[in-house]
Input
Amino acid sequence: MTRPLSIAVVCFPGVGGSGVIASELARNLGHRGHRVIVLATGMPERLKLNGVRFEKIEVPVAPMFETAPYGLAVANHLIHLVRRESIDLIHLHYAIPHAASALVAAQVLGAAAPAMVVTLHGTDVTRLGPHPSLNPATAFALAKCDGITTPSQYLRSEAQTCFDLPDGRIEVISNFVDTTRFAPPPQRDRRVLEALFDEPSDGPLLFHVSNLRAVKRPLDLAEVVARLRTVNARMVVVGEGPERAALEARAKELGVTDAMRFLGSRNDFEGLLGHADGFVLPSESESFGVAALEALSCGVPVFGYQVGGLPEVVTSGVGTLVPLGDLDGLAAAILGGLRARDALGRAGRERATSMFRDDKVVASYEEYFQRVLASRGGS
Output
């Protein structure tokens, strides 16, 4: 790093992967001496304001609007911010609609526009990106941005195809984890999780964290518990989302309600996670898998489907991935992994600390930002 930067970070405030990474990155950049301002429609749940400033994006509502003009509100907030204070770089998390917002702001600001960097996170490429009502404008806006990053090789390849971007245009910078916060407990104690259930059992204790959207295939969690009923498996589910009611209903249908506990949104779940025997992630699409990385950092093996960028995080020796939708194979993988739980957990922790530690990845972002600025003559 040649000098501290003034960085504006734009993100969604939810607990999905993009909001988590944006908040954690902002916090780390602030601790490293940069001036960081986070812009969102609400306070991101993972954002800590030590060394970071937050500004709320106000989105107007009016009877003629079927949906609020969020994208324009982002662009105008950026314009006002740059006009009142010096900003070196704007880092936008999630391309839709943030890439177009950045383009509008840059056009208005002209020569005063800061560097614009967009980080693609997953469904902005794989699900929304190809949609004909979103693709042409987003592709054009991304082509005009000063920098683009993805967290995995998989997502880079998908983005190049989706938005017709040339080779070398996208930088891969992995997601990361706070290995101090997400760490194995000094002593694993199954009673910590058993206390959440009506009575103790000697069966495996499994864990899941997500925003319970359809893409996470949360109903598969109940299916897995049902298949492991013979070994008295139980599962703790952390998170809120549109599929929670359907998951609870499916658990009831399968007769496993007593074997599942739904804790809702929790910011302190890492204190529970490290005591689990395994982490289950049955997503049908993952650009990276932040939840999987947090589990590995806690020394917990991960079991899921071999999709997207997840194999770049969960390699053999730290967990098992099976073909998408193979519920019997997933249950068998969990059962097999229990026999090597401690070895898998140690290897997962080592992988997290050696490759995905927050300070290491944040330094990569710093270096990339400096290269982007140097290419504009602004280093």
